[in-house]
Design a protein that fits this description.
Elements (H helix, E strand, L loop, with lengths): L2 E5 L2 E4 L4 E8 L8 E6 L6 E6 L6 E3 L7 E6 L4 E6 L8 E7 L17 E2 L3 E6 L1
Parallel strand pairs: 2-11
Antiparallel strand pairs: 1-3, 3-8, 4-5, 4-9, 5-6, 7-8, 9-10, 9-11
């Protein structure tokens, strides 16, 4: 059974940093793309970062560009989201998701393209 498990969320003051981890069990992340989404209260879930199967193809949404960095360690079957300069508007539940249907593909931007999701981890940034 495939499971994605996020960790690393928590409460941080504005300007602080957190590193989220997403570990896959039951299936290797390689060679598949992995995305990080977030959902704030009352808002739609949005893609904030995506890392391609090689690790060299990354995407970041406008609000997080320059502050968030996505990386992967295929040997550990883990994908990371380093979040720096956090702001209150970054407060949300963060989810990792994998597109296990399309190996060697890095053009995943939409929720429906991802077929496995983690349970989410809460990130709260206080002002």
């Amino acid at each position: 059974q495939v499971q994605l498990v996020e960790s690393g969320g928590g409460l941080v003051q504005a300007g602080g940093s957190l590193r989220l981890s997403c570990e896959s069990s039951g299936r290797a992340f390689s060679p598949y793309a992995v995305g990080w989404f977030r959902q704030a209260p009352g808002k739609k879930r949005e893609l904030v970062a995506r890392i391609g199967w090689t690790g060299g193809s990354t995407y970041y949404s406008g609000p997080v560009t320059g502050r968030f960095t996505c990386s992967r360690d295929n040997a550990k079957n883990t994908v990371y989201l380093q979040m720096n300069s956090l702001q209150p508007e970054d407060t949300a539940v963060y989810y990792c998701a994998a597109d296990f249907r399309r190996p060697y593909y890095s053009g995943n931007y939409y929720e429906e393209e991802y077929d496995y999701w983690g349970q989410g981890t809460q990130v709260t940034v206080s002002s």
